[in-house]
Every structure is written in C-alpha cells, then in structure tokens.
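Moderator note: this is an archived Q&A kept for reference. The question asked for a predicted structure of one protein chain; the sequence and the answer are reproduced below.
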Amino acid sequence: MNKNKRLYIFVGILVVVILACNMPAGMPTTQPQIVPIDPSIAPSATSAPVVEAPTVSPTVAEIHTQTPSISPSGGSSIYDVESSGTAAERRAPYGDSYNINRLERPFLQDMTYVSDLDIARFSVSQDEAWFYVSIKLTGRDPNNSLGINYGVEIDVDHDGFGDYIIWAHPPYTTTWDTVNVRIFADKNHNTAGLSADKSDAPFDADGYETQIFNGGMGDADPDMAWVRMNAGVEATIQFSFKKSWSGAVFMLGVISDGDLKDVTKLDYVDRFKEEEAGSPVKDKAYYPLKALFAVDNTCQEAFGFKPLGYESKLCPKEPPPQQPRQPGEEPPTPVSCPPHPTCTGAWSVWHEDGCWCEEILY
C-alpha cells in the first residue's frame, strides 16, 4: 500500500472518531416503550368535561308579586314648621319643642341649613291594598351628599310609643323599589323612654330593636314596603306599605335624619338632655345645636280612629303659620285646647306646636 493510500485511510478513521465524540449524550439507542391506556380510566372520545353554569339569583324586581300604584291619590296635608325663612340667620323660627319630641333641626352642628332635611308637610292616602305617605321637603334632592335617611313611624295602639318604623336609605330612585327599605319593630315598648309625653334623658334602651323586613331579600313577603323620590310636587319622598301588614288603625309621623341614623336610639330626646342636645332656636338657653343635629320630625296624625285630642304626639288641628316669626314674637294660640282627663294639678296648654299637659306650680 503506497503512502498516499495509507494517508487517506487514516484521515477517514479520524473523521469517524470526531463525529462519534460530538453525538448528544444519553441519546436512546432503542425506541421508547409504548404503554397501552387502561380503557377503564380513559375519558370517552365522545364526551367533554361538564362545566356547571353559574347560579343566577333572581333580582329584586323578579321576585315581587304585588307593586304599589304609580299614580296614587293625594291626601290631606299635615304641616310641619319650616326653617327656610330664617336659615340665613342660622336658626329655626320655632317648632323645636324638646320635651314633647318635636324636633326642628334641619341644620348641621355649625347651624348650616340643609333644605333636603327640612320637612314642610306630609300626607297619607290609600287604595284597596296600600297606604301611601308623601313627604314634601323644602329641598329637592333626597340624594343629598349628607346621606339622609327618611322614615315613617307607626303607633298602632296610639299610646305615644312607636311600634314600627319604615326606614329608607339612599340612593333613592324615581321608580318604586324595596331594596333600600327596612322595617324595624319595637317589641319591648321603650321607643319613647319611660313616658311618651316628655324627655326621659338620659335613658338607655334599644328603641326599634327588631328588623322584620330586609328590602325584600329573603323576606317571607318581599312586597311589604317601598320608596321612591320626586313622584310629584307634594312627594319629594314617597313611601308605600301594605295594609295587610300594617292594619288600618294607627298614628303616623315622619322623620328625616342626616346624622345619627340609628333606629335603636329613638326617641332621640330620651338619649340626650336638652343642654347636651342644644337648640336651633336663638332665644332659647341652649342655642346653638350640640349633640343632636341634622334631624327633623313631625307630629303624628290619627288614621282609622277618632282621637280624643290628648294623645301623645298628636298633631294640632290647625297648621302652624308658614311665615317666620321675628325674634321674641310669641307663637299664635288656637281658640282652645281640649281638657286633659289625666292631668292632675295641671292645665292643658298650647305649647308652640300643640296641646300638651304642663304642670302649673302654685
């Protein structure tokens, strides 16, 4: 074998060795074993994974079976004192009679006037199935940024102690809705403290302590009470509630609340002494407002029965004048007040907003 031929053989062997050294390590030299699939655990070729559809709860609108009228009839107006005429003077004209739970406090603690708190009047009407309570506010925006709650207090045995309160919170809409309405009951008879006729402060009680309606959510009757706003000139806020629940005999008043908003503390006059609560009337000793502010309530009107005239919190027969009084001016006196059969050594007198029993010291 000549020299050139040996050289070619050597080079060829060298190339084979180099290629062998550059092959990937661990490369299998045989085909991988194929393990057969057990048909008992294999998914069917014709079935797909089952995906459950999300459970969709019915909306409030879907669960209602009975709704109030869109256009209920009107009712006779029960007037409340307005503070719009004296608001610039940072005072209420009158109408805040603390000892009989008559609050005229549509002001913040610094005596800034809030017209959306100021109740001008209310009325009650009815149809076959419903009562309607229309509240006329001095202001026009129940959805005030203060976050105002409005309520209807019902006294079924007209003894001055509230039995139920229908309580609504914002946001309010122009259509009937229940979602922002609650009803609370007082089952241990202490919403007016120890006595319905005067402030019993300081008194510790639980007010309207039992919720019986939760906006239709899970309630046995989802249609018990409704609220809407701006339903008409006389209905800045309007409530509706079922006769089948309330009955047809009761005393009723309304309230607006932009501060405490706590039905377990009603009546508020039983929580604070008057000197702690302050007063919105400038010529009173406790002016200005202190602990109790941003709240306005009304007297209570009788429905379904003829009142005797001396029921606690009963509205006077004559509406108060709507023109503001000047400082020091006395409120007008009605022709007469009915005699009070339970006042001993006392007279039944006109006290700013109505007739009530006042002790006369001789």
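Archived answer notes: The longest helix spans residues 3-21.
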